[in-house]
């Protein structure tokens, strides 16, 4: 049973025998369209199964004509090994060179050169052909590649080519089957009675019959009704395999080549602003200028956009630059994905490279942006996670997959280490924050509360919502709230009702007015039930009017006084003494206003206010003209 899964690309100049060689190896004619038969050229991508002992491989036959470069790029985007086809009777041609350059930009590292139509040339010319090829492949991915002479009609060299393919496949690491499922779609069609079917090569992860998937960039939810690998029904297909998936939940018109089928976990998200490392083509005809229109090819997608430079206004041939592309439509890419840029007019391959950050932002022109992009380019998984948490402050695991473009297993492995080393902290069940960002937020909260306590010493603390709002420009509301909650949980902040404070803080009179306010409070006590309005005491002591309400709330909130009405207060000591005097004077029995007046020395107006306060505090309850005790004073006074 095969245990290794790979995709092989068949590339090269038009009419050099790619399709014929594919058929010779697989017994499958990949030219399936009527127009392809009539013109005898490949127009669309062709696919054929190519079992090779323990290797289950697929061959992708890509068009060789310069007009079909977009199809060629889509076809080779997901391959592991490329066979570069060069006809012995023609040698290296323009599309041979362009295909080599495109394959280089796409990061294909394993290749074999198949020299077809070998029986058409005299043996004496073989050495000259090899020299021509060696010259063309110098300093390319094919420089060390095996060169195999074959003839697809007579079968000459085919066993040697199979052996070379097998040998090269043994050197190639398999794709990541543990990652989140991703399938760039290169074909969409319908099957009578079954509905919409998509095809592609699985970049990473696995898919099973019954899986709920998402079509990006439009975030359409679908179900994998049936999974096939080369017309054979499978329960599961894994990274590296060529697969067809019958989808339920959408029509053929709602999906196209270039869309991406992904797991519904949200590990991949569409983007239209991408930070890239770009290497321009060696034979670039015209300089590439700032904001020039480009065609972006990645996976099977082809999207128009513009190029943005941050340290120059143009690039020329054979230059390497860190820059950004901004697309007219969203695509799905991950960090490390390869791409090709082409100029729409005049048509030519501009260059290619790899994605540094799929979710770039708008940056300023200048050296600081280039330094930032360099850090992103060189960043280790740990640095990328910490940079993402620094930039976004608070993130879920799904967010981090999105921000860092790490595979799930790599992210989880690194998060275990970061949490163990306390470089990352967990917040609730779902969120993570870097230790640095947490400490920044914590210190900002503490400083905010210190300033608040200094400005408003009479208040119990700062309203939690107000504190969160005050720090909104520095930290996200969600982060500030979660840090406050965590600090409260650990006893490092105090809370009374909706007010939060430093744990050591106690409300107090402002130092500047402390003596005068204490004198006003003492006078309130001395005047007993005959006290003046509270404001009058403050007026007499020349307390600023802006503090009147603050002081009143302080006295009431801290139990130093009770309100008789909107203007009058009663000192706590007076309240307690008068309460005990009343209770003892009538032996705890029901009483009338007249009974209370006979015991307490107060005007009828002030006495009524005092008794109504007792009712409000549920110490007494009025029934008709009498009041009965609901509680004993000893249970009230502390």
Automatic annotation (TrEMBL):
Cited PANTHER family: ELONGATION FACTOR TU, MITOCHONDRIAL, ELONGATION FACTOR TU-RELATED
InterPro entries: Beta-barrel_SelB, EF-Tu_GTPase, EFTu-like_2, Elong_fac_SelB-wing-hlx_typ-2, P-loop_NTPase, SelB_WHD4, Small_GTP-bd, T_Tr_GTP-bd_dom
Superkingdom to which the source organism belongs: Bacteria
SUPFAM superfamilies associated with the record: EF-Tu/eEF-1alpha/eIF2-gamma C-terminal domain, P-loop containing nucleoside triphosphate hydrolases, Translation proteins, Winged helix' DNA-binding domain
A Pfam family that the UniProt record links to this protein: WHD_3rd_SelB
Keywords: Cytoplasm, Elongation factor, GTP-binding, Nucleotide-binding, Protein biosynthesis
Function: Translation factor necessary for the incorporation of selenocysteine into proteins. It probably replaces EF-Tu for the insertion of selenocysteine directed by the UGA codon. SelB binds GTP and GDP.
Molecular functions per Gene Ontology: translation elongation factor activity
Domain Tr-type G: residue ranges: 3-174
Gene3D superfamilies per record: 1.10.10.2770, P-loop containing nucleotide triphosphate hydrolases, Translation factors, Winged helix-like DNA-binding domain superfamily/Winged helix DNA-binding domain
Organism ancestry: Bacteria, Bacillati, Bacillota, Bacilli, Bacillales
Subcellular location: Cytoplasm
Name of this protein: Selenocysteine-specific elongation factor
């Amino acid at each position: 049973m095969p245990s290794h899964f790979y995709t092989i690309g068949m590339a090269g100049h038009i009419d050099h025998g790619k399709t014929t060689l594919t058929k010779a190896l697989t017994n499958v004619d990949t030219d399936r369209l009527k127009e392809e038969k009539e013109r005898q050229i490949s127009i669309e991508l062709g696919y054929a199964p190519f079992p090779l002992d323990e290797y289950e491989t697929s061959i992708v036959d890509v068009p060789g004509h310069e007009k079909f470069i977009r199809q060629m790029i889509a076809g080779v985007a997901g391959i592991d090994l490329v066979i570069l086809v060069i006809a012995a009777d023609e040698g290296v041609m323009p599309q041979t060179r362009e295909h080599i350059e495109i394959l280089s930009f796409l990061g294909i590292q394993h290749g074999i050169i198949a020299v077809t139509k070998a029986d058409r040339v005299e043996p004496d010319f073989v050495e000259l052909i090899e020299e021509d090829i060696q010259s063309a492949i110098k300093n390319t991915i094919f420089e060390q590649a095996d060169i195999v002479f074959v003839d697809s009609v007579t079968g000459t060299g085919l066993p040697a080519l199979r052996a070379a393919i097998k040998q090269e496949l043994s050197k190639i690491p398999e794709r990541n089957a543990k990652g989140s499922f991703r399938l760039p779609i290169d074909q969409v069609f319908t099957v009578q009675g079954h509905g919409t079917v998509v095809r592609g090569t699985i970049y990473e992860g696995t898919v099973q019959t019954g899986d709920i998937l998402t079509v990006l960039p439009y975030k359409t939810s679908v179900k994998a009704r049936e999974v096939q690998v080369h017309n054979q029904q499978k329960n599961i297909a894994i990274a590296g395999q060529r697969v067809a998936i019958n989808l339920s939940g959408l029509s053929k018109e709602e999906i196209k080549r270039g869309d991406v089928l992904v797991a519904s976990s949200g590990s991949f998200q569409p983007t239209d602003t991408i930070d890239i490392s770009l290497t321009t083509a060696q034979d670039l005809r015209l300089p590439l200028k700032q904001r020039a229109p480009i065609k972006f090819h990645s996976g099977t997608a082809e999207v128009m956009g513009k190029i943005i430079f941050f340290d120059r206004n143009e690039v020329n041939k054979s230059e390497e630059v860190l820059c950004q592309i901004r697309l007219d439509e969203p695509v799905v890419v991950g960090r490390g994905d390869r791409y090709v840029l082409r100029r729409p007019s005049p048509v030519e391959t501009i260059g290619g490279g790899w994605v540094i950050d799929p979710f770039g932002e708008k940056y300023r022109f200048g050296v600081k942006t280039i330094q930032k992009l360099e850090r992103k380019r060189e960043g280790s998984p740990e640095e990328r996670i910490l940079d993402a948490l620094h930039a976004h402050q608070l993130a879920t695991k799904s967010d981090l997959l999105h921000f860092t473009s790490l595979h799930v297993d790599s992210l989880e492995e690194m998060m275990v280490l970061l949490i163990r080393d306390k470089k990352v902290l967990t917040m609730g069940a779902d969120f993570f924050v870097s230790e640095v960002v947490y400490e920044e937020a914590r210190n900002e909260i503490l400083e905010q509360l210190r300033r608040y306590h200094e400005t408003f010493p009479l208040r119990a603390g700062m309203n939690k919502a107000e504190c969160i709002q005050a720090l909104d420009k520095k930290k996200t509301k969600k982060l500030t709230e979660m840090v406050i909650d965590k600090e409260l949980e650990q006893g490092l902040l105090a809370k009374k009702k909706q007010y939060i404070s430093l744990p050591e803080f106690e409300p107090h009179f402002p130092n500047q007015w402390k003596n005068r306010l204490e004198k006003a409070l003492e006078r309130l006590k001395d005047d007993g039930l005959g006290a003046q309005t509270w404001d009058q005491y403050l007026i007499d002591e020349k307390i600023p009017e802006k503090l009147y309400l603050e002081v009143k709330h302080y006295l009431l909130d801290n139990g130093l006084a009770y309100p008789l009405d909107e203007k009058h207060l009663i000192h706590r000591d007076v309240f307690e003494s008068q309460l005990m005097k009343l209770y003892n004077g009538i032996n705890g029995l029901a009483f009338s206003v007249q009974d209370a007046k006979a015991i307490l020395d107060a005007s009828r107006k002030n006495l009524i206010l005092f008794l109504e306060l007792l009712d409000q505090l549920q110490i007494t309850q009025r029934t008709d003209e009498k009041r009965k005790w609901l509680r004993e004073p000893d249970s009230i006074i502390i």
